[in-house]
Amino acid sequence: MGYSYKKEGKFNYLEAGTGRPIIILHGLMGNLSNFDGVFDHFSTKGYQILMPELPIYNLPLLKTNVKNLAKFILEFTTFKNLHDYILLGNSLGGHIALYYTKHYSKNVAGLVLTGSSGLYESSMGESYPKRGDYEYIKKKAQDVFYDPKVATKEIVDEVYESVNDRNKLIRTLAIAKSAIRHNMAKDLPNMMQPTGLIWGRNDTVTPPEVAIEFNELLPNSTLYWIDKCGHAPMMEHPDQFNTYLEEWLAKEQL
Prior knowledge:
254 residues; alpha/beta; Rossmann fold; eight-stranded mixed β-sheet
C-alpha cells in the first residue's frame, strides 16, 4: 500500500497520490483499511486520496452527531487547503457527505455514495441487549456482507469491543439517533452535484430500494449495482467497485 498515515494537529488521516482530491468518509464501525483497494488503485490514476479518521468516539456526547462530523470535515478541508474535491462515503460516511454538501457545497465537485445512510438504514440497535454475546455480534457483523467470510475475526473483534465499551456504545447510539433526525429526503432534489451510487444488490442495512430512492431524488445521479454484495462493496468486491468508480469519473469528466 502506497499511502502514509499522518498526524497533524487534531487530524489523523491517510493520504496518497496527487491530483484532484477524493476525500473518503468511513462508516460508523468502518476501519480505515476498508478502502485499501480505492487507495491502491486511484492514487496512481491522478487523484489525491485522503481519509481522515472521524472523531466519532472523541467528541463531547452532546456534539456527537452528523452535523458536527460534517463540521470536522470542513475543518479538515480548510486545514489541507483542498478545493474542487469529490466526497466518497460508505454508510454513515455517505450521510456525512450529504449533510456536508447541503451546507458547504462550494468546493464539492461530486459525490460517491455506497451503502449510504441518510434515507433509511437497518441499524444494529436491537442487538445491544446481547452485546456481551460474542457469537451474536459475530452473526450481526457477518450479516453486513453477502459472503460472511469477509467478516474476519479482526473485524468481529473490533465490533465486539466497540459495543462493549460504554463510551463507544453511548456515542454509537447518539450517532444513530442523529442519523434518523437528519433525514436528507427533502434536501436531495436540491443537490446538483454529479453523484455516483455504487450499491450491493444484497445490502440488508441500506437495502436496494434505498439506492433506487437516492437515484430518483438526486437530480444528477448514476446507479451501479454489484451482485452478490452486501453493505460494503469496496471491501467485498473491490475490483468491481473500482471499475464502476473509474467509469463514473470518466463519464462525469472528474
